[in-house]
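[stage:ingest] chain + small molecule (adenosine-5'-triphosphate)
[stage:ingest] validated
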Amino acid sequence: MSNTVIDLKNVRHSYNLGTPIAREVLSSVNIQISRGESVGIIGVPGSGKTTLAMLMAGLEKPTSGSLKTPGLGVGKVGLVFQFPEHQIFGKTVFDDITYPLREVLDLPSEEIETIYNDACKKVDLNADLVREIKPLEMSGGERRRVAIAGILVMNPEVLIFDEPTAGLDQDGQDIILDEIGRLSTEGKTIIIISHDMGNLLYNTKRFILIEEGMVADDGPVREVLQKLSEREDKLSMLPFITELMVKLNEKGLNVRRDIFDPEEAFSEIMKALKV
Ligand SMILES: Nc1ncnc2c1ncn2[C@@H]1O[C@H](COP(=O)(O)OP(=O)(O)OP(=O)(O)O)[C@@H](O)[C@H]1O
Ligand SMILES: [Mg+2]
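[stage:predict] done
[stage:export] tokens:
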């Protein structure tokens, strides 16, 4: 049996079809994602990453091509939106996180309590303290954690995070990235979208590079990084350590260009300097 949980074949997507402003934003996209994988989707702003996420989560239908989620039940792909404000509706944190449990699944209240407490714990929120707080009065990082908890209560098998660290300070970013890492080790299939690939290096093993609505590269992180480092027009996308290695290499120092880890960079540079 195939282990594929998300399968896009020849997927195209246009907005405003049938109007003068119709535009194709995804063209002939082929992507297969296996159960338990952790994948980073990278690309410059406007390349089509969010559109791809909406399609994968079933929130938009492709204009043409086939998109399947074999072996996954309805609602088993959860998407944490790029802007958490777009998915937080509840008046209080409790109302928001438990909304689908009450309104869609109609679960008994004891079960709702257990799931609520569990989801809060997973995202490092104190369930009792935040219960009656208005989500829109929380900090950006807390709000994003509420949005993630609201997805986790549905126990999705595939989780898509669209720019999960955008607008957060370093501490806020670390909390979210740790949480995503934990979900991955629990066996969830994780897809993280970011135009800042530095955030994805430690949490994903495979990168899919989207350029102008097409898959420009798809492979192990290091291979994609190595190819990007050879492209003058893509240097700004690289993590700063990789950019530094590229610059040193261009200045004639015999160092590898596919490095993003500071310690690895240090030993590679020391080796090249023969010190
Ligand atoms: N609802 C919409 N209606 C019309 N055009 C849209 C809509 N959503 C996105 N687009 C256009 O589709 C293209 C791809 O947008 P998308 O949001 O998927 O890109 P992105 O890679 O996620 O960008 P960013 O990094 O800025 O989030 C852009 O040109 C955008 O203007
Ligand atoms: Mg986007």
